[in-house]
Amino acid sequence: MTTRATRSPRRRTVVALAVVLAVLAAFVVRLVDIQVVNAKEHLADSFSLGMESGRTLHGTRGKIVDTTGATLATSILLYDGVLDPMNAVKGVPKGDADPASTDPADRIPWEELAGRIGAVTGQSAADVQQIVADALAENAGSRFAYLKRSLTTEQYRRLADLDLPFLSFEQHPARTYPDGAVAGNVIGFVGSDGTPLEGIESLQDGCLAATDGKIRYQRGKDGVVIPGTEVSQPAVDGGTLQLTIDRDLQWYMQQLIAEQTQNLGADSGAILVVEVATGKIRAAAEYPTVDPNDFDAVEADDRGTRLFRYSYEPGSTFKPVTAATAIEAAGLTPLSTEVVPDREIFPNGADISDSEPHDTETMTLAGGLVNSSNVAMSKFGSQVSPEVRLEYLKKFGVGAGTALDWSGEPDGVYLPVEDWDNQTLYTTTFGQAFTVTAPQVASVYQTIANDGVRMPLSLVESCTTADGTVEKPDLPGPERVIKKETAADVSLMLENVFAQGTLAEDIAIPGYRMAGKTGTAQKVDPATGTYKDNLYYTSLVGFAPADDPKYVVLTAFDEPKKVRMSAANRPAFVKAMTQVLKHYRIMPSGSTTPLLPLTD
What we know:
This protein is α+β, with helices and mostly antiparallel strands.
């Protein structure tokens, strides 16, 4: 029988136990609430107070590919080797030795391990030991020191195979260009920190750039990650940028322009290939060029593109614009005539001369273009008012740049009509007193070849984002610049330049009708403000097949020394156009050029 005296202590024990259990239950509930139910809220609170650790998840910068999908620029993983200095100096256990043993006989000493590491990284054992010694000298409890940054995947694997617990790795993306200098001036490059510095890499960074993510977590006192505290924000990779450039054609053109530039002793050279029907640039080759993998190896001026950034007075390559203007605005035809001496002083006192002396002739408009007569083009062109002539220059792109919207690309400079002096009134008819870039000149010939319709020049096909969305560049639409009939007349005259001009034999490609024009642009000496003596920017631009135009090719040399006039461009142009026709398997023309009378 249980007495009152024995029941009372037992009751108190049960009550006390119940209280303890209730408190424990409350703690469990609260723990579940903190670590499960409201874990994210509490983590956010602790993170906001700086109570977190973490590491960056690097996104991968997007690839740049050519029009066929061949890779021009891509990202690879590099690794930063990280040492734990405090543990490194302890060495590691030998074989099956007890990991806790401190007996030197049971451990591989740090000095030996440093030699093994250095054999992989290219450092001496002393160098590796010094890294650890310096870290410990600064902080006796140091747990972090960089061994070496930007280790290759091969080095990383060899180091990982050493299985050293005090050695870890941080990975990060790096840029590489598999074809080296191919299209290097166009593609550009990024800095060691991944910042885009030049070319397409910079201009199209909105497509290519990745967004880094991050893993955040909390660590316990022993440095171990506390379970349930890890929060991940994934990285977003950059998009794939497809260019209009044809890698194989680009490679050939770069070899060609390098050879020709050096042969001529020119300061620089360039070749531009444009598809007539689309305005797409298939090759933009330059010399000197840059290998984006090692851009520091060349002078700063050679790391970008001169082709898109250099402007000049185009000279004779713009005479077809004068012809088109005279046909449309003055009602002339290719057979209209003017009496043309080799030098003429006009009523306003302007003094205009041809580059070569000749007898006074009655030239047709076609003859003026074929003979590249400054006097003839001055006479034909001045039949149109200055205001209308300037309007046509602007219609052909003078002063407006191109749709490429390249960083540093000049729009071109021209004088308003009210500022034209006596000489400018005529020099504007043969490509002086205003400036353009080589792409603007190529655009003029693309327009003529395309029945008078300008297609905006382009270098970018598309951007495919990480989620698969394909974005096309926002380009201006086709624009009619001159009538189809005018374009046909000018095209036929340009054919006759190649068929009947002084360069006819040198420029011919058997089986193909071609059209084009040379240009010898005088260069201004910045020091004097006058034209340089016997130094020119020479160019030759044309399209083929002229009866069904497919491609425009432009070659240009800055101050060639061995052949100083536009004749310097003939070998490069013929080789470049021949390669284009072969590369794209363009069928030969089925006819020959109809010859126009050059004189009356």
